[in-house]
Amino acid sequence: MTARTFLCLLALYCIPFFTNAQTVATISGYVKDAEGPVAGASVIIRETNRGTMTDKRGYFEIKDAKGAVTIIVSYAGYATQTHILAAGTTALSVTLIKSQQELQTVKVTAAGKVQEPKQSGFSVNVVETKQFANTTADINQVLNLTTGVRIREQGGLGSNFNFSINGLSGKSVKYFIDGVPTDILGSALSLNNIPVNLSERIEVYKGVVPVHLGSDAMGGAINIITTQHQRNYLDASYSLGSFNTHRASFTGQYTHLKTGIMVKGTAFYNYSDNNYTMKDVEILQGGVRKGDEITDLNGASFVRTDIKRFHDQYQSAMGQVEVGVAGKSWADALFVAGGYSKGKQDLQTGFEQTIVYGKVNRESEAYSGSLRYKKNNLFVDGLNLNVFASLSKDSYRTADTLFRQYYWDGSWTTKSASEMNSVKSLSRMNRPKQFARINLSYAINDQHSLNFNYTYDRIKNESYNELVATDDPQPGILNKQIAGLAYQQELLDKRWVNTFFGKYYGLHLTTNKWINNVYTPVSQSQPNYGYGIATRYKILPEWGIKASYEKAYRLQEVDEVFGDGLNVQPNPDLRPENSQNVNVGMYYGKTLKEQHRFYAEASGFYRKAVDFIYPVPDQRSKALKNENKSSVRITGLEAEVRYEYSSLLSLNVNMTYQHAINTTKFGNTTSNTPEATYKNKIPNQPWLFGNASLGLGKNDLIGKHTRLQFNWYTQYVHWFYLTWEAFGSASGKSIIPTQVVHNATLTYSLQEGKYNISAECRNITDNLAFDNFRLQKPGRAFSMKFRYFLR
Amino acid sequence: MKPIFAIRNLALATLAVASLFGCKKDDNNGSDQPEEGQYAAVVCVGSWPNTAYYIANVPSLTSGTITVQGNGAEMTGKVYAQDILQKDGFFYHANSGSGRFGKYHVANGAVVVDREIPYTWLNWSSYVWVDNETLVIFGTGATETQVNEARYSIVKVKDMTVTNGKLPFTAFPSATFTNYSIGFAEYRAGKLFIGYQFVSDDWSLYPNMPVNKQMSIAVVNYPAMTLNNTITDVRSTTPGGPIVYAQASFIDENNDLYFITDPVYNYDYTSPSVVYRIKSGETTLDASYYFDFSAKTSNGKGPAMWYIGNGQAIVRTRIAGESIDAEHSFSVINVKTGQFIKKLDLPADKGERMVQAVIVEDGKAYIAVNSADKDYIWEYDPATGGLKAGAEFIGGIDYILRLEKIK
C-alpha cells in the first residue's frame, strides 16, 4: 500500500500547473469531396488532440483553439489532410480526395499505428488485422504467423491452447482488449474464438510490458485494439466451412450527429461440430454390444482406423453494447457498456489421445458492465486521464457425470470411475470480479512524459461440485493491485527514446479454512517490485536499434496457495514466478519510389525465469499441489523480412529460434548432485519455427472498384523430442514430428470493399498436424466467408 | 519433485504429455521377446513437468555404472508409469485413465507394446502371481451409484484375457468410511490373502483424515473367489500400502506368510508399523507372533519389505512423522524370530516414497539407494553382514523407482 501511495504522489507531484496566455479562437468550416459535403469526417487539433466530427452538411466547429494549430482532417477512404493555421484563423474549408490506398486489402504494415509501437524501445509484434479481415482466421491463427509466438492447440475450433511468447507460456502470458484484461468478458471469450474482424490491430509485447497494461505478465502480453473510428461503420460477416463450422461477427458504430451520442455494438457467434477425421486411432472390435454400449469386454480388442471425432461440438457467442459520447469539452470519451458471453463445449479427449470422452462437456456464461472515461488535457495541457471500471461475473461448469469409458467409434463400456477418472461431478466455478484501471499520462514537454497506471483487481473464486454442494465453503479471494510509473524521454530530435519504469505488485489472498475444527479466515499478503527500461535509437530515419529489460513477475493465484478444498491441496509457501527478460533488436524500413516497400527486423531475446509454479499430482490424496518446480533460461533469435510492391504484391518471411535450457539444478531438493537434466535443452517444446506468406492482389481486374486478392500462408514447426534429448536410446524415443501446413485464401471485393467474398482452404495438403504429442488437429478444411463492410 | 504416481487432472499441465499408446509402426521394430540384460532399473529424470521415465539396462549389480544418457528405453509416451509389474522381462500396467491394460517388453532400446486390452474394471493397488501365467490384480471401483467396491481381475498374461469379479470384503463399518485401501496380497495353497483397510474419501478433512483403527485380511478361496474367513486386528492398521509400487509381504521357504503394516500411509499417526505372520496352513494370524517394528526404529514405519533368505528380511524404513515423503533407511530384521538385527550403514535414502529397491541374487541382497550424493546399488551379504557399494547410477538420475531382476 505504501509503495502505491508513493507512486501516486510522485505522479501527482510531477504535474506542474501552468498555463500560457494565448489567443483563443473558434475554428469552423466545411469538409466536402468531389460530390458534396462529407458527414462524419474527423477534424482534430493535433496539439491538443481535441476534435469533432462534421455534421450532415459537412460543417464542423472547434472551440478553444489556442494560438497556431495544426488541423488534421480524415475520413475513411480519403487521404488525410493536415492544415497549419496561424493564430487567430477561424475558418477552414477542406476538399477531401479519395485515396487509392484505402482500396487495398493488404495494408502497408510499416506505417502509421503499426509503426508507433514498433519503433518504441519495446519488443513488440504489431499486426494490422485488416489484411485478414476477409479470412476466417481468429486472433490465435493470426498471431501464430508472427515471430516469437507459438500457439499449441489441442484440437479444432475452441479447443484448449497454450500461448507462448519467446518461450514463456501459460499463466505468464496475459490478454487484453484495449488495455483491459479479456477475462472481464468471460471465459467464453478467448483468443481462439475472437473473429479477426473485431480488431483493428493486435500488439504482442514480448517479455517487457509497458506499464499501461497493468498486470503480472511475466512472459508478455497480447493487447487487442478494437476499431476506434470516430465515424459510423458497419462490419458484418458470416462464414461457413468444413466440420459444420459457422462463424458470424458483427461490429458497428452509429453516431447521432445532433446529440453526439454514439452507440457501438460488437457481437460474434461461433459454431462447429469439429468432427474432423482422426487418423490411425484405436477403436474396439468385438465384445458383446447393446447399441453403443459394450456390455462385455471379453473378446474385444483394439484395432486401428481413421474415424471422425464424435463429441467435440463447440459454440460460443458474445455481445457487447457501448453507449456514450465523445469529443465533448468535459469528456473526450464517456461510455457505459454491457456485455454478455456464453459458451458450450463438448470435450473429446483428455490430455492424451487415448483418453476419449463421450459426454463430458463444459458450459460458461459471463455478464459484465463497465464504464470508461477519457479526458485529454485535464486541468493542464498534456495531462490525459483514462479511467475504466467494471463489474463482471464469469461462471463455468464442467459436467462429468457418467461412469463410462468411451472409445473413438463412440462406443462405451462401464468404468469404475467417471469419464475423467474421478467422482461424478458438475464442477461449478463462479468468479465475480471487480476491476478498475486508472491511467494518467502527462507530457511535460516535447521531450519528457510520464505515465502512471494503477489497476485494482479483485476476484472471488467459488468452486464446488453441484451434485453434492450448493456453494463453496472456502471461496478464495484474490486481490491484486498493480501500480506502474513510466518516464519517457525523447532526445536528440526524437532519435533516441528511453522509457524507464517501475512496477509495484501488491497481492493479497484470502480464504476460509477449517483449522482445528474452526472455520477460520486465513490470508497472505506479499509485495513485489519490478522495474525495467526500453530504449530505441534511430541511426537513420529508416534504421533503428532497440533494447529492453524487465524484472517481471507472475503472481500466485488463490487456488495455488490455498487449494480449492476439492482437487487442489494448499501450499502456503508458494513464491511468485519471476523472470529477468532482455530483448535487443533492430529494424530497417525503406520505401523506394513509393512503390517498393521493404521492412526487416531482427531481435535476440534472453529470459531467466525461476520458480515456475506447476500443479503436481499426488496419488495418495488424489489431489494436485502447486509447487515452485523449475527454472529455465531461454535465449533466442527471431527475424522477419517483408516486401511489398504497390498494392500488387506482398511477401513476408519470418523465423524464430529459441534455446530453452533447464536451470533447475536440484529437482530433488535433498540431492547434492545436480540433476541429470541440469543445463539440458527443455523437451517437448518447439524450438525452431517460421512462417511465410504471399499476397497477390489487383484492383479493378474484374470490374471497376473491385479487387481480387490471393493469399498463401505456410507454417513450419521443426520436429522436437517429447522427452529429454540426451536420455534413452535413440530407437525408442518419441517425437513430435515436423509440421508444415499451408493455407490459402482467395477474396473478391466489390464496390471498394463493401462486399467481400472469400474462399479459403486450410491445411491444403491434409498433413497430419499436432502441437501436442498425438493430439491431432484438423486436416484439410474449406470455408467461404461473406463480409459486408460499410463505412 | 513429488511422486508421479497418478497422472490425473492434468489437462492443465499440457507440457506433461504422455500417452499409453501402442503405435504399430514403432512396435514392429523389435522382437517378440525381451532381449536386454539380466537386470533393469526404472528411473526418473527431470523436474516436473518435464519428468521422463526410462527402463535402464543394469549390466551388473556389483560393478560399473548405470546411465540413461543415450541409453535405456523411454517409457514416457508409451507406458508412463512407476507402477509397472515385471515378470520374466515383460512389464504389465493397468491404466485407469485411458481404460487399458498392457503388456510390454524392451527390445532394441525401445518399449514394445505386446498387447493392450480395454480394461475398466478397477483402479489397481495390489497384485499377486498365482502361477507364472496368472496374475491376479486387486483394486477398487465404484458402481454406477458411486458405491466403492473391492474388485479383482484374474489375468492370463499369455494372451491377456481377463476374468473380473468382486472381492468378498466386509461391508463398511460406518458412513465415515466409504472406500478400501487394498494392501499386501499373497497366494498360498488355493487361498489368497489380501490385506485391506477401510478409509475415508472426504478429502476436505485432509490432513486429518478419519482412521478406522482396525486392519482386515480377507482369506479368499482361489479360484472360486469365495470368502474363507476375514482376519482382523486392532493393534495396527494398513496392511501394506499400494504394493504395485513396492511389496510389503512374502512367503518364506517354510510357507509362512509375513507382512508389514504402514499406518501412516492412510493417515493413522499413532499405530505402530508391525510385522505379522500367518503360519503355513493357517488362515489366522499367528497369535504368538507380533513384531512391533516401530518400537525398534524410533517410531519408524515400514512401507516395503523383502525377504532375503536365511530368515532375514530388509524393511525400507521411513523416519517417524506424518509425511510419507520423508527420508528412508534400510533395516535388517530376523523375521522368523521377530528380532531387529540392525539398521544398515547406508547413506540416507532421499528417494521416492515407494521404491521397489531390493532384489536377491545368490543369497545376497542388492539395494538401490537414492542418496544425497552418489547413488549406488549396495550389496548386503546376510551371511557375513558385509555391505559394499556395487554398480553406480551416474549422471544425476533424479529418482530410482524400481530395481528389477529380469531373468
List its traits.
heterodimer, A: Immunoglobulin-like, Maltoporin, Chain A, 22-stranded antiparallel barrel, 4 helices, 49 strands, 4% helix, disordered N terminus, B: 407 residues, mainly beta, 5-stranded mixed β-sheet, 4-stranded antiparallel β-sheet, globular
Question: What this model shows, in words?
Answer:
The complex is a heterodimer of chains A (791) and B (407). With 791 residues, chain A is mostly beta strands. Chain A folds into two domains: 2-99, Immunoglobulin-like (Sandwich), CATH 2.60.40.1120; 233-790, Beta Barrel (Maltoporin, Chain A). Chain A is built from four helices and 49 strands. In chain A, the strands form ten sheets. Chain A has a 22-stranded antiparallel barrel. In chain A, strands 9-15-16-13-14 form a five-stranded mixed β-sheet. In chain A, strand 47 (770-772) and strand 48 (775-776) form a beta hairpin. The radius of gyration of chain A is 28 Å and the shape is globular. Chain A starts with a helix and ends with a strand. Residues 1-22 and 100-112 of chain A have low confidence and may be disordered. Chain B is an all-beta fold. Chain B has a domain at 121-304. Helices cover 2% and strands 45% of the residues of chain B. Chain B has two helices and 29 strands. In chain B, the strands form seven sheets. Chain B has a five-stranded mixed β-sheet with strand order 3-28-27-26-25, with no helix packed on it. Chain B is globular, with a radius of gyration of 20 Å. In chain B, 56% of the residues are buried. Residues 1-30 of chain B have low confidence and may be disordered. The interface between A and B is large, with 85 and 91 residues.
Secondary-structure class of chain B: mainly beta
Total beta-strand segments of chain A:
49
- How large, in whole angstroms, is the Cα Rg of chain A? 28 Å
The share of residues in helices of chain A is under 10%
**CATH secondary-structure class of the largest domain in chain A:** Mainly Beta
**How would the global form of chain A be characterised?**
globular
Low-confidence stretches of chain A: 1-22, 100-112
What would you call the quaternary organization?
A: heterodimer
Query: Helical stretch count of chain A?
Result: 4
Percent of sequence in beta strands of chain B? over 45%
Largest sheet of chain A: 22 strands, antiparallel, barrel
From the 3D structure, determine the CATH topology of the largest domain in chain A: Maltoporin, Chain A
